Amino acid sequence: MHIYTKTNYTLTFDDFYFHHKLLDGLDASGYINPTPIQAEVIPYVLEKRDVIACAQTGTGKTAAFLLPLIDNLIDNKHEHDISALIIVPTRELAVQISQHMEGLSYFTEVSSIAIFGGGDGKAFVEEKNALSRGADVVICTPGKMISHINMGYVKLSKLQCLVLDEADRMMDMGFHDDIMKIIGHLPKQRQTLLFSATMPAKIKQLSQKILHNPIEVNVAISKPNENIVQGAFLVYDAQKIELVKHVLAQKEFNSVIIFCSKKLHVKALAHQLKRAKLNVAEIHSDLDQAEREDVMGKFKAKRLNILVATDILSRGIDVEDIDLVINYDIPHDGEDYIHRIGRTARGTNGSGTAYTFIAEKEQKGFKQIEELLGKEVPKLPLPAHLGEGPGIYVPSKKPAGTAAATGGKKKFYKKK
User: Fold this and answer.
1) How much is the mean pLDDT over the chain?
2) What is the third-level CATH fold of 228-401?
3) Inter-axis angle of helices 142-149 and 176-183, to 10 degrees?
4) How is the chain split into domains, by residue range?
5) DSSP string spanning 318-383?
6) For residues 2 and 148, which has the higher predicted lDDT (pLDDT)?
7) What is the predicted pLDDT for the residue at 231?
8) What is the pTM of this model?
C-alpha cells in the first residue's frame, strides 16, 4: 500500500490533461490544486485501474473519483445505458455527491441522477424514467437501487465503472448482501473503485471479491501546527464584513491573509476594507500572472499587510511571519482548511492565529472538518455591536424514513 506523505506540492488540475469542458467546471467550482487523495487517485482512475483507497470524509475524495470518471465518460459514454454506478450508504451522501457531480459536469454532456429512499411517487417515476432511458452516472443507496433492479428495466449491461463510497459504513449498516446482489447484475469487465475511511478485515475481504489487481492508496492527512490558535465565529453572511473589520481593529497585525471561497466575495470584501483605509489587496484567478506576482512581492516585502484571496494561495505559497489567517468562508474540505491555516505559524515567531467565520448553512460542513481534525474548534462570542449570530445546528435524531431524516426542517439552538 502506498502512503502519501508529501505536504508541499504544487500540482494543478491542468497536469491531469482533463477535457477543457471539465476544466471549465473545475474553474467555476473554485478548484485550484488537487488534494493529496486527488493527486494519488486521479491518474489511476484515468488509466481505468481498479483502486482501493483509505481516505476520510473531508479529504476531497469525492472529486478524486468524480473528476476522472467524468473525463473518461465525456467521449466514451453509451447512449441509453448506465455508464457508471456510485453506491453510497445514505440519502444525504447521495444528494451531496449529486450536487458535486452537477457542478463539475455542468459544461459537459455527462448526465446524472441521484436515487434514494424517502421520496414520493413522483420521484419514483422520475427515477424509473431515467433508469429506463439510461443515465450516464447513477448515484444511489443500495436498497432503493435493488427496488428498481427487481422491476427489470435498469440497464446495467454496459456499465464501465462501479464506485463504492464509504464502504466501511455500508458494511456497518448491513448492506453487504445488497451490494453483492447489485454487483451480480453488473458486467464482470468493469472498473471498480472502493473508498473507505478505515480498512477492517471485512473491507479487505470485500475488495478481494470485487476488485481486480487494485492499486492501494492510503492518504495520511496532516494535522495543523499546534502553535496555531484556532477559533470560530457563528455568523450570518451579512455580519461577516463588519466582523473582519472588528478583528483587524483589535491589534496591529503585520501580515494577514483572508481566504474566501468565491472571487465575488474577495472583490466585495477587499472593496470594503479599502474604503476603511486599510492597506489591502486582492488576489484571484481574474488577475494575470504579472499582477499576482506584483501583489505577492509587495506582501512578502511587508509593503502590503492584508491580502484577500481565493484558495489560489492556500497551497505552495511560501510566505513567513503571517500572524493571522481568516477563513471568511469555510473551505471545500478539511485538507483545504489545514492548508489555509497553515500559512501562519511558519516564521520566526512559530505561532499564529486562525479564525473561521461559519455561516448558518456552513455549520454542517465545518463539523466534518472538526471530525477530520479530531477536535472541536472553540466557538467565540460575537462582538456586542454585531448582534446575535445563528444558533448551533443540531442534526435530527429521528429514525430514517421520518420527515426530519428525509429533508425536514433543520433545528438551530442558541449557544448558551
Assistant:
1) 85
2) Rossmann fold (3.40.50)
3) 40
4) 2-219, 228-401
5) ------EEEESS--SSHHHHHHHHTTSS-SSS--EEEEEEE-GGGHHHHHHHHHHHTSPPPBPPPP
6) 148
7) 96
8) 0.62
